[in-house]
Amino acid sequence: MIAIINASPIIYLGKIGAITLLPKLFSRCYTTTIVKKEVLGDEKVPEFLILEECFSDWLTVKNPSYKQLIKRLEDLQIHSGEASIIALGKEMQEKAEEKIIIIDDLTAREIARTLELKITGTLGIILKALHQRLIMKKECKYFLQFLIENTTFKISTTMFSKILKEIDEFES
Predict the structure, then answer these.
(1) CA distance linking residue 68 with residue 15, whole number of Å
(2) Which residues have CB under 8 Å from 86's CB, separation 6+?
(3) Any idea where the domains of the chain sit in the sequence?
(4) Residue 130 pLDDT more than 90?
(5) CB under 8 Å to 28, separation ≥6 — which residues?
(6) Is the pTM above the cut of 0.85?
(7) Domain 2-135: which topology?
């Protein structure tokens, strides 16, 4: 499966020390130039070197040619990075291998769904790693806790409870 990844999942996974899950979960990982600039915009963050290494190691920058779709998405108040990821996903949708868009913004996710793109987010990646046994329950809970307590990641209490229940019920 191919992943097309927006900035916030890359940044959050970098902050919690889980960025290396992406190349283990997906055969290829893509992002766009706009997203790369956003991810590497602050050289002072502790995870900067790890994030920078991703771009030279396993994260491929590929820009969409669907410029009109990007413009229409931006007209809908979708951030340019998210618009470029959605456009790239739509462009690559016709290719044979299955693709997933990794994006956290709720509005962008809804638009991606209307374009019949498969989506997940930061939390979905952590849970996918648990289900594929790349991490254990304890590590999964640690990532979730760190994400909520030490970053700007937002999650409802209902969703938090649902995810904790899923982790607890997972047969390791």
Answers:
(1) 34
(2) 69, 73, 78, 101, 103, 108, 111, 112, 115, 117
(3) 2-135
(4) yes
(5) 2, 3, 60
(6) yes
(7) Rossmann fold (3.40.50)
